[in-house]
């Protein structure tokens, strides 16, 4: 059905995700579609998804799919002033994207986690305007006693007859391992930040401290608000980078393959963190897609590792039409910045790649 709509492009299913989704662009706007099957004969227009009774007899995947709407509704119910909350959240989301710390899949906070952090600050300062909330956001999170959880309300017991797992570090060793737990307020309460690694936690703490310093200067009139949203310097910050490139000869296959690779990059980051000489493994929050046109098999091999020659970069589809052995390679490249501290007696060799045009 979606394929039949001309507005829909880049349609891909991600059934193996923790929350299965359908990703697409509708009129160039990115959309994630969730699905949950309710144990009801029909769906009334007045249905309130916050009702815990709806979770009865649902499997865990459907419960997680419903969680997005249930958590959003609960957040709005728990903040003292919805308008202040929304204005503050818009600023924090813009800041997180500008500073490249907005990506759950890459080990940073996602949209729901940032919303819950802003909501908690709104609860702590119920009568403050949005500008003050943004400053207090950075003050509170930069001084938070991690891994103490961010909670919008106490974690309550399960409804009668429902024994789903609830976040509880006293019982579950996996929950004790969460570095910066931000807990969803709707049942079953879960940690929305289980993906955070040692490196991404350190990066976000650095950004919180920067945000506090900048907003303090904004408050005194020595800096404009635009300074808070200065663009990240990821591609000039490190001496060493890992580049991971996923490639395929088909656009539809590439969407799924790139999504699979992206979903597993966090595991690579955690492995790299274990290397003695690596102090920090910093994943960038998104990949970079390219459609390259080749004339020879040698060009294919070079393109597949993400090192596209200048003459290939300037080539168009028209340049290869009708030529034997020519074709298209679709690539998605992901980057991990490395802060490396060589140990005595060890030598680090460098294989350089240029990153011109990456932002």
Written overview of the protein:
The protein is an alpha+beta fold and 359 residues long. It has two domains: 36-232, Poly(a)-polymerase, middle domain (Orthogonal Bundle); 235-340, Alpha-Beta Plaits, CATH 3.30.70.590. Helices cover 36% and strands 15% of the residues. The chain has helices at residues 60-78, 82-98, 111-124, 130-142, 173-176, 198-220, 234-237, 251-273, 297-304, 310-313, and strands spanning 8-14, 21-26, 29-33, 240-248, 278-283, 288-294, 327-340. Strands 4, 5, 6 and 7 form a four-stranded antiparallel sheet that branches. Strands 1-2-3 form a three-stranded antiparallel sheet. Helix 1 runs parallel beside helix 3 (111-124), helix 3 crosses helix 4 (130-142) and helix 4 (130-142) crosses helix 6. The longest helix is centred in the middle third of the chain and has 23 residues, at 198-220. It starts with 7 loop residues before the first strand and ends in a 19-residue tail after the last strand. Residues 351-359 have low confidence and may be disordered.
Topology, pairings included?
Elements: E1 8-14, E2 21-26, E3 29-33, H1 60-78, H2 82-98, H3 111-124, H4 130-142, H5 173-176, H6 198-220, H7 234-237, E4 240-248, H8 251-273, E5 278-283, E6 288-294, H9 297-304, H10 310-313, E7 327-340
Antiparallel strand pairs: 1-2, 2-3, 4-7, 5-7, 6-7
Helix pairs in contact: 1-3, 2-3, 2-4, 3-4, 4-6
Radius of gyration: 23 Å
CATH architecture grouping of the largest domain:
Orthogonal Bundle
First-last Cα distance? 35 Å
Shape: globular
Q: Which stretches of 5+ consecutive residues score pLDDT under 50? A: 351-359
Category by helix and strand content? alpha+beta
In the residues, how many domains can be counted?
2
DSSP strand tally: 7
Q: In oligomeric terms, what are we looking at?
A: single chain
Query: What portion of residues belong to β-strands?
Result: 15-25%
CATH class of the largest domain: Mainly Alpha
What's the story with the biggest beta sheet?
A: 4 strands, antiparallel
Fraction of residues in H or I helices: 25-40%
What is the CATH topology of the largest domain?
Poly(a)-polymerase, middle domain
